[in-house]
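Posting this for the archive.
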Amino acid sequence: MKEIPPTPESYGVIAAATERLLAGLAGLDDRDVGAPSRLPGWTRGHVLSHLARQAPALERLLEWARTGVPTPQYADRAARDAEIEAGAHRPAGALVADVRETAESFRRTVEELPAPAWQATVRPFTGELCTPRRILVIRIRELELHHVDLDLGYRIADIPEAARQIILDDVLGYYAEADGVPDFVLSDREGALLGRFGTGGPVVSGATADVLGWLAGRSDGRELHSTAELPVLPPWL
């Protein structure tokens, strides 16, 4: 799975994604946060509650790396879902403040993590073993894709190239290891190879933003070109 180094550049990608998200939340009222998001069954309030609760959950993994004491993100999926639901119906101001404050706490925790801890092994909620370098990828991915999911006018094409490439590499890495992926070849609009899955199959191509939207389940792939019927992907995450 994708990992990136703890550098000022990677911290900057997270900070910029956070700033764009908070700017997009300016002016939201209680009716806005109660409206449906682009995720089935979730309001915007659910998305914001998830983003706010994810930050301390990732901090628990960083604490694991710092101390060596296993500290899971969540006790289990039921606990995670209950936490999101409990916070989803708060007023807009409380939700936005929670997103802002937890993002700032996450930033401090990341920047203060001792150098040896970046080499430690932890296990995120998704089950893979990794170092905290992966946590940086997870946070970038969640900030950017869930900003899109809020349905406030922010699109995958609006994600800056540096962040979009990190997320695309991460999703491609997931499908390279996932079960049930059909055979196909994936390329960008200029024909540069992005990924090869199995042997043979159709060639699927398009703009990288459209490719990412399809792979991440945010579009049906109608913007893409395929030399045969578009493959049906197993669910991502």
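The longest helix spans residues 44-67. The longest strand covers residues 184-188.
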